[in-house]
């Protein structure tokens, strides 16, 4: 964003977005959405048109947390965007809010400036998105990359940030990745995808992570000593010297040993 | 990355209709096949009636489900001639995922009601369960449209 040359390009490209923001303000819609938090990527034959506002572009929003699942979602969004002529891909990285932090009380007094944090996050995100765009471009050589890409960094809970930004942008589609958490992990860690699906007013495309391979179960061969001990004792002894400790003594129940007088007499142990 | 086989899970509600419209536009875009699946569930009378489950309790429900699906298909045919339909019975989310496997779908499209609070606790979301359990991408569509 500090780059002078790029800044000029960005300002030109940002025109439609700024207009949209301004028109939202005119309608008395107080948007907390900061334009400065968004930076445009100059990519390929991007041409900012003056009349961009008249034909509404197809706006995709992707939530990204730099994980493999998020990258799958990002690639899916690129693929969807390249299907249309006029589309924008907005990439969002949500940073945890200070109030989620146990040290919130201290940080609130220290009056930490959020700008450097957001700028750093935005730079990281932009580098990542550039890299993923390159990867997508090389993975799909025939695909025309005519869409625009915008990065956003927002201090908020992930699902809320996604849904809120989608609302501000008037997004046509939200794309999110998900980890297939199960059991306790699922109880402890809420799913961003789930929150997004619940709250979003626009369609949400959820990209699952590929199924994990089943862990291979290795069954060891029987202990040769035990096999020998069983053979030599003709079944009376199951275990060898070293395994006897672990398995306890062999015992056998006999139905005929029940006392005839008392039906409930416990089974006799030999 | 293109979707070849799209499964639309429908309960014939507003959000399901919107999901269907979106699925049709995607299918037209990608030239993919479309399957409409509806799942109905028989009320569980087995506690009361034991083995003597009156069969004519279930039959009208199934007939109604068939009728609704046929009605939906007659509406769908002019818009998307090659669409197929599938009727299933059982727990909705299980049936949706089963159906997706059966038709080798690579995308599930379904509506969501987006219930909150008390309503949410009572009526679990089928979409949520499908999103959790599915191994293929799921596209959810909310009926609300504009934010509240």
Give the SSE layout.
The complex is a heterodimer of chains A (270) and B (148).
Chain A: H1 4-13, H2 15-26, E1 38-41, E2 58-63, H3 68-81, E3 87-95, H4 104-110, H5 114-139, E4 148-155, H6 158-169, E5 173-178, H7 183-188, H8 192-199, E6 204-208, H9 224-232, H10 241-247
Parallel strand pairs in A: 2-3, 2-5, 3-4, 5-6
Antiparallel strand pairs in A: 1-4
Chain B: E1 5-9, H1 14-30, E2 33-40, H2 46-49, H3 55-76, E3 84-89, H4 92-102, E4 107-112, H5 117-122, H6 126-133, E5 138-142
Parallel strand pairs in B: 1-2, 1-4, 2-3, 4-5
Helix pairs in contact in B: 4-6
**Span between N and C termini of chain B?**
33 Å
Spatial shape of chain A: elongated
Main β-sheet, spatial strand arrangement of chain A: 1-4-3-2-5-6
* Global outline of chain B: globular
Biggest beta-sheet profile of chain B: 5 strands, parallel
Average pLDDT score of chain B: 80
Using only C-alpha atoms, the radius of gyration of chain A works out to 31 Å
Structural class of chain A: alpha/beta
Description:
The complex is a heterodimer of chains A (270) and B (148). By secondary structure, chain A is of the alpha/beta class. Chain A contains ten helices and six strands. Chain A has helices at 4-13, 15-26, 68-81, 104-110, 114-139, 158-169, 183-188, 192-199, 224-232, 241-247, and strands at 38-41, 58-63, 87-95, 148-155, 173-178, 204-208. Chain A is elongated and about 85 Å long. Residues 1-18 and 23-54 of chain A have low confidence and may be disordered. With 148 residues, chain B is of the alpha/beta class. In chain B, strands 3-2-1-4-5 form a five-stranded parallel sheet, sandwiched between helices. In chain B, α4 crosses α6. The radius of gyration of chain B is 16 Å and the shape is globular. In chain B, 34% of the residues are buried. The model of chain B has no long low-confidence stretch (mean pLDDT 80). Classes of the chains: A alpha/beta (270), B alpha/beta (148). Chain A binds chain B through residues 75-76, 79, 83, 140, 167, 178, 180, 186, 191, 193-194, 197-208, 210-211, and chain B through 1-2, 19, 22, 29-30, 112, 114, 116, 120, 125, 127-128, 131-132, 134-142, 144-148. β6 of chain A pairs antiparallel with β5 (138-142) of chain B.
């Amino acid at each position: 964003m500090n780059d002078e040359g790029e800044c000029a390009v960005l300002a030109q490209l940002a025109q439609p977005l700024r207009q949209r923001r301004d028109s939202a303000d005119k309608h008395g819609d107080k948007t907390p959405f900061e334009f400065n938090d968004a930076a445009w990527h100059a990519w390929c034959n991007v041409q900012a048109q003056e009349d961009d506002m008249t034909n509404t572009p197809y706006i995709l929003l992707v939530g990204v947390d730099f994980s493999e699942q998020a990258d799958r979602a990002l690639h899916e969004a690129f693929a969807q965007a390249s299907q249309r002529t006029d589309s924008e891909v907005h990439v969002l990285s949500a940073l945890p809010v200070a109030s989620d932090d146990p040290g919130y009380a201290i940080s609130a007094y220290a009056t930490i400036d959020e700008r450097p944090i957001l700028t750093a996050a935005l730079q990281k995100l932009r580098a990542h998105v550039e890299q993923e765009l390159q990867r997508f471009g090389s993975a799909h050589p025939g695909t025309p990359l005519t869409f625009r890409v915008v990065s956003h960094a927002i201090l908020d809970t992930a699902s809320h940030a996604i849904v809120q930004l989608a609302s501000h942008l008037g997004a046509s589609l939200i794309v999110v990745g998900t980890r297939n958490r199960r059991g306790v992990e699922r109880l402890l860690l809420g799913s961003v995808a789930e929150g997004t699906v619940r709250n979003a007013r626009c369609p949400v495309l959820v990209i699952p992570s590929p199924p994990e391979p089943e862990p291979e179960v290795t069954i060891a061969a029987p202990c040769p000593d035990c096999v020998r001990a069983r053979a030599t004792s003709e079944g009376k002894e199951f275990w060898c010297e070293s395994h006897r400790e672990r398995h306890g003594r062999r015992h056998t129940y006999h139905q005929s040993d029940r006392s005839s007088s008392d039906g409930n007499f416990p089974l006799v142990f030999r | 990355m293109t979707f070849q086989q799209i499964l639309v899970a429908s309960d014939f509600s507003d959000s399901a209709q919107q999901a269907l419209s979106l699925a049709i536009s995607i299918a037209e875009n990608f030239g993919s096949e479309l399957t409409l699946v509806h799942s109905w569930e028989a009320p569980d009378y087995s506690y009361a009636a034991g083995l003597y489950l009156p069969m004519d309790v279930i039959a009208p429900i199934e007939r109604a489900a068939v009728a609704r699906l046929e009605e939906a298909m007659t509406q769908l045919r002019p818009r998307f001639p090659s669409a197929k339909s599938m009727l299933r019975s059982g727990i909705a989310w299980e049936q949706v995922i089963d159906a997706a496997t059966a038709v080798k779908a690579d995308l599930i499209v379904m509506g969501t009601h987006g219930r909150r609070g008390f309503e949410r606790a009572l009526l679990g979301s089928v979409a949520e369960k499908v999103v959790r359990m599915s191994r293929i991408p799921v596209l959810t569509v909310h009926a609300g449209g504009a934010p509240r």
